[in-house]
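Notebook entry, structure prediction.
Reason for the run: the old model in the group folder had no record of what sequence produced it. Starting over properly, with the input documented here first.
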Amino acid sequence: MPSDQPSSRTPSVSRRRFMQGTAATVAAGLAVPTILRADDKAGAKPMIVGKDEHTYEVLDNWAKLPKGMAFGNTHSVLELADGRIVIHHTGVDSTCFFDPDGKFIEAWGGRTYIGNAHGMDLRKEGGEEFLYLATTGMHKSIKTDLKGEVVFSNGYPKDAKNAAGQQCYPDAPPKVAGAAEQSGARLYKPTFTAFAPNGDFYVTDGYGEGYIHHYSPKGEYLNTFAGKGNADNQTQCPHGIFCDTRNPDSPMLLVADREHHRLQYFTLDGKLDHLVTNDNPEQNKDDSGKLRRPCQFSQRGSEILIPDLRGRVTILDKDNNAIVQLGDNPDVSQRANNGVKKDKTVPGAFCCPHGATWDHDGNIYVVEWLPYGRVTKLRKV
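New structure, fully documented this time:
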């Protein structure tokens, strides 16, 4: 699937269906949300998900926008060094800043990134923090400071060639006499960015041709690897990318090969090292494996956090085994469904996790691919 496509039907979830699904999830040994009725005689109680040291209180609709502002699809979230939380969405003023309690601070972007905002990654360089934006519909990778001032903007890498020596993004001749030639830029739809310890960075063409492009710290194009296909070193929507430094002696690029339901590990020079997959192919069809449609990553110590588009968030241990899966939505029809109506969402049950991050205290923020935006804070307890 080349992009996130909304469903033509909008499902509803009744309490009975939700509780039936919850029972099935418990039987499978996964963590599920605690759902409290509004008329609970004991009054409002915290909603809890997870287990053991990975136990969290659900703060539904955590981000409070001022009157007159609205989210588009919420795609990315991260924490700055000073504790502010930044959310990237597809609406007006697409980059929004909040304090840890969800209070709105400021936003920028105007109409520039409407419909095109997607990946947002953070890097500290010489004492200053910068955002790297992967803008799918604009066909660009853009570096900005925290005020939105553009440092550089890269279009599609015209010189990029695949393993067969073919141009990755060839121009297309006119289909009609007298029409303009179509630029290869139309094929390039970047999704996320990763940073190597030496300052180089990598951009995934997740919604385009499936390549991963390597750049110098100054944004100079270096090389290309991967590309669409079903071989071990090829991809079907390399949606997210991250430099896994849990082994500091051997940092590697971790790629969310979303439509193959797997993770890929590449060396920093683009050689496939190994794969992380479900135990058997049948688990890709029935969602029973630890990986459904992985989107992106956040690292904390020896653990990796993965927002999974099909209705949950997973934490992996140092050996990439699933420790816990949070907010697993028992209503299968709501998973990865951009058409779920806001009043049909259930607190503590995710529909379309697209981005997630840990903060410095171990709390988790999750943003979902929903047209009205949805931001959940999982507060560590």
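Summary: Helices lie at 15-27, 282-286.
The old model has been moved to the deprecated folder.
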